[in-house]
Design brief:
By secondary structure, this protein is mainly beta. It has helices spanning 101-107, 269-275; strands spanning 9-18, 29-39, 85-91, 108-109, 125-127, 149-152, 155-162, 168-169, 176-178, 181-187, 198-207, 212-219, 228-235, 252-256, 287-293, 299-303, 306-311, 329-337, 349-350, 358-368. Strand 16 (299-303) and strand 17 form a beta hairpin.
Length: 369
């Protein structure tokens, strides 16, 4: 139907029929009833009242400052108040902002800030580069047939693999490769020197082997027993007498410095966790770990919105000492295994025990205020 002869707006049509040609006698008739249409000659259809609002745009990684922010969600838990600006949105997985190996290479490095691949020679597992182009001199590269980083629809899974054909792995041999990584982005300062509150949250789960080593932490480009925050650190210890943490039930959350700034004592991990309300803990389900470091040099760490550590008077300087050299803040993600200087995890293991074990990273987001 050519509707241009009609004005825009509602139009009611009816139909009536007879059982004979026009002008002839008929014996019956019928009415099809009325139907109302809306005429819109070239006008855009109005939005349906049920339709969702227009998208504000895809999520982005962000430039790392409030002047060059990221697009993405607000903090997962209301810790530290509001008005935070998302400046880095590392959302892992094929549907996120870090979707592929190329994205990982662009935003992360496979070594630490001192250009070592195993926390010096401390870690039993060493970080594997993604390719020769991302490797340090002499650094092993992951085998595409047995990768240490796998992208899933909504996450990044990092794995542990034996190296050099090992059938038994040992921390002292460094014959395990890991998918651990470090953000290339660093904050130029932190705490009072930055003059902004920092909120950093990471959502992760893991299924560990015995003697695993897991940490989400920040440090500086120099280190003398600080500055360092271990937002969470856990390892699969065997303390003898049946006291083990192979399944990742226990962890601690601490600052690192010459003097103790922490208000929660983790000398005994199970006891500290119980006092905080973590009578049980399942690392195979996702948990969100949050660091809140304020511009007055006070800090609080959280697990799933529940405070697990806090302290004050911690400047982000060399050695965490007042008046010392201000440091950058470096963001590190360790999903490793073993430690050469921690006897409870310096044990050999059949390489097959690494099969099916992993760390799974959902996202990590950085906010400033």
């Amino acid at each position: 139907m050519d509707t241009t002869q009609f004005a825009d707006g509602p139009l009611t049509l009816t139909a009536h029929a007879w059982n004979a040609p026009a002008g002839a006698s008929f014996t019956s008739e019928a009415d099809a009833g009325a139907v109302t249409l809306t005429v819109q000659n070239g006008a855009a259809a109005p939005p349906s009242p049920e339709a969702p609002p227009p998208s504000s745009g895809a999520t982005t990684v962000g430039g790392g400052t409030k002047e060059d922010p990221a697009r993405g969600p607000a903090p997962s838990f209301a810790v530290g108040g509001g008005e935070f600006t998302l400046v880095k949105n590392w959302d892992f997985g094929e549907s996120g902002t870090i979707r592929s190996g190329a994205d990982m290479d662009a935003h992360f490095a496979y070594h630490d800030q001192f250009n070592t691949i195993g926390n010096g020679s401390n870690y039993g597992a060493i970080m594997l580069a993604s390719s020769a182009s991302t490797a340090l001199a002499g650094q092993p590269v992951e085998d595409p047939a047995r990768p240490v980083r796998q992208f899933l629809p909504d996450s990044l899974k990092t794995l542990l693999v034996p190296l050099r054909g090992a059938t038994t792995v040992s921390p002292n041999e460094h014959n395990v490769g890991s998918g651990s990584f470090m953000a290339k982005f660093t904050l130029p300062k932190a705490g009072a020197a930055l003059g902004q509150d920092i909120l950093w949250e990471t959502r992760v789960r893991f299924v560990p082997p015995p003697y695993y080593w897991f940490a989400i932490w920040v440090s500086g480009q120099q280190w003398q027993k600080g500055a360092e925050f271990d937002v969470v650190e856990s390892f699969g210890f065997d303390n003898g007498g049946g006291s083990t943490n192979y399944d990742g039930t226990y962890w601690h959350s601490n600052s690192v410095a010459d003097t103790d700034h922490d208000r929660v004592d983790y000398a005994n991990w199970p006891s500290a966790m119980s006092k905080l309300g973590f009578g049980t803990f399942d690392p195979t389900t996702y948990h969100t770990w949050t660091m809140l470091y304020r511009k007055d040099d006070t800090f609080s760490f959280y697990c799933d919105g529940k405070e697990v550590q806090h302290g004050q008077g911690y400047p982000w300087t060399l050695g965490a000492k007042a008046g010392a050299l201000p440091l950058d803040m470096v963001f590190l993600f360790d999903g490793g295994w073993g430690h050469t200087t921690v006897s409870s995890v310096n044990h050999s293991l059949p390489a097959s025990a690494l099969d099916g074990k992993y760390y799974e990273w959902d996202y990590s987001r950085l906010y400033l205020r």
